[in-house]
Please model this.
Amino acid sequence: MPRPVVSTGSTAWKGDLLSGSGTTTLETSQLGTFDVSWKARSEEAAQGTTSPEELLGAAHATCYSMQFSNMLAENGTPPTSVDTSAAVTFNIAEGGITGIALTVTAKIDGIEDADFQRVAEEAKSSCPVSKALAGVDITLTAALA
Model:
C-alpha cells in the first residue's frame, strides 16, 4: 500500500498586510524562494513577486495535466502533449478566490472531440486539486492541438 506523501512550503512575513512583504519557499523540492506581497495579490503583480493565487494556479494546472494525461492513457488514447493553464481570480470584495479557469490544449492521435471533451471534464472533477477547491467555481476550456 502506498504511503502518504507530505509536501511542505513555508512563508516568512514581515510587517502588516498592506505595507509588509515576505518570502515563500518550496521546502520539499528546494526549488526556490519567491517574494510575496499584498500588492502582488490585490493588484497587478510586479515581475519577480508572486501571490498565493499564482502558486495555486501553477499547482492546479500541474495536477490537472497529470490527471488528464493518465485518464487519456487509460482511455487508450495517450497524449503526445498536454498544456494547461489555470487563471485564478482573486476579488477581495467578493470574499477572496472567486473562480479558476482551466484552459487545456492537448495533442492526441486517434481521439474524437466528443471523447476528448468527456475525458477532459472527468479529469477536471477528479483532479485532487479540483477536489480540494470544490467550493470555488472551476471552468474548463479544452481544445485539441
Observations:
- The mean pLDDT is 95.
- The longest helix spans residues 52-74.
- The helical segments are 38-42, 52-74, 113-126, 128-132.
- Strands lie at 9-14, 21-26, 32-37, 49-50, 81-91, 96-107, 137-144.
